[in-house]
Amino acid sequence: MLKLVHLHQSPSSQLQPLATLQTTLKSSSAVAIPSKQPPSAARFCSSCGRRHFIEAATAFFLPVSPPKSDASTLHSDDYSDLLNKIHPPRPDWYEEFYASVMDTSMKSYEAKIAGYKSQLFGKLKGRAKRVMEIGIGTGPNLKYYAGNGEVQVFGLDPNKKMEKYARASATAVGMPPKNFHFIEAVAEAVPLDDSSMDAIVGTLVLCSVKDVNMALKEVKRVLKPGGLFVFIEHVAAKDGTSLKFWQTVLDPLQQTVADGCHLTRETGKYITSAGFSSLELNMASLYNDPFSLISPHVYGVAWN
């Protein structure tokens, strides 16, 4: 029987120690999660700056080898088809505009979340030489790999215009060009081999993928046995609160103006039910403002 995870609640934006809770999960007894996803062609939330549109007033593919899962048997053309289906092509000017907004609008958020990220990325040191980031965006996380000349980062994003900003971020933190690989792809169909990554990172991305269950299935497929999935996501507020009410009211608008970002998605439940062998899950309120729509966060580490 699945042992329910009790979340560690941080009442303010002050960094809290990661809970020592380790929960053994069995996929056969996973908590039921609705599989129906909203019809919008959602994509990565990158650094989820798209949520600020409400709060502030609005490639190439790596070689694929078959063996185990449906995704790993796809050819490049199949990945292209899935990419275009899940993330329909947008005008270049729009993709460029959005990438530039992400590059300039996220500095205050990144400063706020830095303590949490430093703590989580510290768990990768000495354990991960091959890291995949889903929703790499403009590369705000690349600074956490600085000084590690052995790490190879494979950054996925469906917006090809993000690449130049991500590469600029890599250069700015001293990452050798050969150590960073940008892949135009979606989280639901990753063009990488089974068990090929030591760690996978997702920060503010599962709020906007079209199919959370499929994305997490891909995470587990690509991770090596015992590999780490590091995550930070904004999530729905507690039921019955005024914040949850306003999240629910504004969620349709958020999805429209923010490329499918959901304010009411209970991402922690999805991760809990994904079948990871062990899970460390925490909650925090990032902002003191009780009406900040994206203040509630979950963060932690899951082991494959």
UniProtKB/TrEMBL annotation:
<dbReference type="InterPro" id="IPR029063">
    <property type="entry name" value="SAM-dependent_MTases_sf"/>
</dbReference>
<dbReference type="InterPro" id="IPR052356">
    <property type="entry name" value="Thiol_S-MT"/>
</dbReference>
<dbReference type="Pfam" id="PF08241">
    <property type="entry name" value="Methyltransf_11"/>
</dbReference>
<dbReference type="InterPro" id="IPR013216">
    <property type="entry name" value="Methyltransf_11"/>
</dbReference>
<feature type="domain" description="Methyltransferase type 11">
    <location>
        <begin position="133"/>
        <end position="231"/>
    </location>
</feature>
<protein>
    <recommendedName>
        <fullName>Methyltransferase type 11 domain-containing protein</fullName>
    </recommendedName>
</protein>
